[in-house]
Amino acid sequence: MVAVIDYNMGNLASVQNALKKIGAACKIVSDPDEVKDFERVLLPGVGAFGDAMEHLGSSGMDEAVCEFAKSGRPILGICLGMQLLFGKSSEFGEHEGLGLIPGEVVAFDPNLFETPHKIPHMGWNELFVQRDTPLFGSLPKEFYLYFVHSFHAVTPDEYVIGRTWYGYEFVSAVENGNIFGIQPHPEKSHDNGLEILKNFVEFKG
Fold it and tell me: Tell me, what DSSP letter sits at residue 11?
């Protein structure tokens, strides 16, 4: 059973529908006391980092997710949910994150673009797999997913399982033991996205 965390900042219906498509039992959870009862946690998210952490903190969901992480059971962060896994973000000021993966979240820097690119990064783009990981399973070393974001993670190479090019190379997927994060939206990425969700649901740790 997958707990889809509800903190008023995610497209929960799309995520829930995608999980149902792959036959995964799931429930949208807004009570932090319930989180410990699930086999795995999915942390979705759309919007600003600071607002998201405020919602998680005011409900006690931040502590519930961190306690769940200590149990060794799998967690997957999607888009903003992935960014929340890091220690801090500079989006509209500096904000502390969940600190489950070392690193920080920064804005795309147009000064680093080799050619002009629009921000946000929106649409289909290629993810380049950096190493074997249960999250990608039998997917090829390069495949397309759907992105919508203006900020991206910066983290040591040891946590990076996917990179993507948009003006310059950025981190698009991470792993730290039982904790996974992916910047694109698997629930909007057709077969490739469903395969990632299926791999997450089947991951045993």
Answer: -
Q: What is the distance between the alpha carbons of residues 174 and 152, in angstroms, rounded to a whole number?
A: 12
Per residue in 121-170, pLDDT (tens digit) is 999 999 999 999 999 999 999 999 999 999 999 999 999 999 999 999 99
List the domain boundaries for the chain: 2-202
Superfamily of domain 2-202: Class I glutamine amidotransferase (GATase) domain (3.40.50.880)
Which residue of the set 95, 149, 185, 195 is catalytic? 185
CB atoms within 10 A of CB 21: 13
- Per DSSP, the three-state class of 205 is coil
Which residue among 149, 152, 175, 187 is the active-site one? 187
26 is catalytic: no
- The closest alpha carbon to 42, from 57, 28, 22, belongs to 28
Going from the C-alpha of 43 to that of each of 6, 29, 176, the distances in angstroms are 8, 10, 15
Q: So what's the pLDDT on residue 190?
A: 96
